Amino acid sequence: MGSPYEDYLNPNKVFEHYNFTKETPVPPDTPSRQAASAFIVLLCCAIILENLLVLAAVARNSKFHSAMYLFLGNLAASDLLAGVAFIANTLLSGPRTLQLTPVLWFIREGSAFITLSASVFSLLAIAIERHVAIAKVKVYGSDKSCRMLLLIGACWVISLALGGLPILGWNCLGHLDACSTVLPLYAKSYVLFVVTVFTAILLAIVALYVRIYCVVRSSHAELAGPHTLALLKTVTIVLGVFIVCWLPAFIVLLLDTSCPVRACPVLYKAHYFFAFATFNSLLNPVIYTWRSRDLRREVLRPLCCWGPRTRQGHGGTPGRCLLPLRSSSSLERGTQMPTSPTFMEGNTVV
C-alpha cells in the first residue's frame, strides 16, 4: 500500500479532480473574468492598506495598548493577511490552477482559510471582550497581558489547525466521489465541518450580543446611558455586516456538501460569494475606527505627512504630524486609559 501523501506532488491530480467535479476543468479566461480578478486584487490592496494604517496606529500610540485595541489590532492583522492570501489565490486561479501540484493547491486554499478564519475568531474575541466590559466581569487581573496574549494565540492556533487539516490528510485524494465541487481536492465532510464551526461562531457572537443587549436593557441608569447605547449600536452594525458578508458563502458551502457532482450549477459561481465575503475584512476596520474619533485621527495621521500643506512647508512638519495623538476626550484627560474603552458616535469614551 502506498503512502497517502504520495500524490501530493503529482501534477496530474489537480486536473483529475477538476475534470471530475466541474463541467470544464478551468473556465475560459474571458475579459469579464479578468476584470473581476482585477477588481478583487484592487479590493484586497485596499484591505491591506487600511489594516496597515490601523496596525500602525495601535502600535505607535500607547494610548491604544488596552485590551480592546489589542484585539482590534489582532483583527486588523488577520484581515491584512486575508487580503494578501486572497490576492495570491486570485493570481494563482484560472488557467494557472491546473499547473499546481496538490500540495501547492492545499497551500493556496489553506492560506485563505487560515486568514479568513482568524478574522472571524478575532471578531469572536472582540465580542467576548465587549461582553466582559459591559457585564463588568473582572477577568483581567494583574496577569491581563498574559490572558490577552493567550486568547490571541489561541485564535491563530485554532485557525492554523482548521486551515491545515486538508494538507494533513483530511482531503479526497483517491476518493473522487467524496470531493467538494467548490473546492475539488477538499472532502465534503471537511467542508461540512468548517461550515459547522463558523455557524457555531456566528451563534456564539449572536448570543453574546443578545446578552449585552439584555444587560443594557436591565441595567441601572449609569450603565444604560448614551455611551453604552452607542456601543450597542456599534456591535449591532458589526454583527449585521458579519451576517451579510458570510451568509451567502455559508449557504453555498452547505449546498456543496449535499449536492451530487455537477447537479448544482450555482456552485460553479462560488468564487463570487467568497469574494463578497472578503468585504468583511474591508469593512471591519472602517466600523471600529470610524466610531472612535481618537482612533480614526490616529489612523489618518500618517496621511498628513503627504498632504499639500506639509509638502509645501505651510504649518506642518513630518516629525510633528507623526507625534502620538493626545486624547480629545475630557473624560480621558481626567482619568487613566481603561482596560476596555467603549465607543460612541465620534468619540472614544470610558
Automatic annotation (TrEMBL):
Q: Name one GO cellular component term.
A: plasma membrane
State the Pfam families in the record: 7tm_1 (PF00001)
Q: Does the keyword Ligase apply?
A: no
Q: Which UniProt keywords apply?
A: Cell membrane, Disulfide bond, G-protein coupled receptor, Glycoprotein, Membrane, Receptor, Transducer, Transmembrane, Transmembrane helix
Where are the stretches annotated Disordered? 331-350
Q: Does the keyword Lyase apply?
A: no
- SMART domains the UniProt entry points to: 7TM_GPCR_Srsx
* Sample GO molecular function, one term: G protein-coupled receptor binding
The protein's matches in CDD domains, at most eight in alphabetical order, are given as: 7tmA_S1PR2_Edg5 (cd15347)
Hey, what's the signal peptide range on this chain?
Answer: none
Give the primary localization class.
membrane
TM region(s), chain numbering = 35-58, 70-92, 112-128, 149-170, 190-210, 231-255, 270-290
Q: Where does this protein have compositionally biased stretches of type Polar residues?
A: 332-342
InterPro entries in UniProt: EDG5_rcpt, GPCR_Rhodpsn, GPCR_Rhodpsn_7TM, S1P_rcpt
Where is the G-protein coupled receptors family 1 profile domain positioned along the sequence? 50-288
The protein's topology relative to the membrane is: Multi-pass membrane protein
Q: Name one GO biological process term.
A: negative regulation of excitatory postsynaptic potential
Locations listed in the record: Cell membrane
Q: Which cysteines are joined by disulfide bonds?
A: 172-179, 259-264
Family the entry assigns: Belongs to the G-protein coupled receptor 1 family.
What name goes with this protein? Answer: Sphingosine 1-phosphate receptor 2
**Which taxonomic lineage does the organism of this UniProt entry have?**
Eukaryota, Metazoa, Chordata, Craniata, Vertebrata
Gene name, Swiss-Prot/TrEMBL: S1PR2
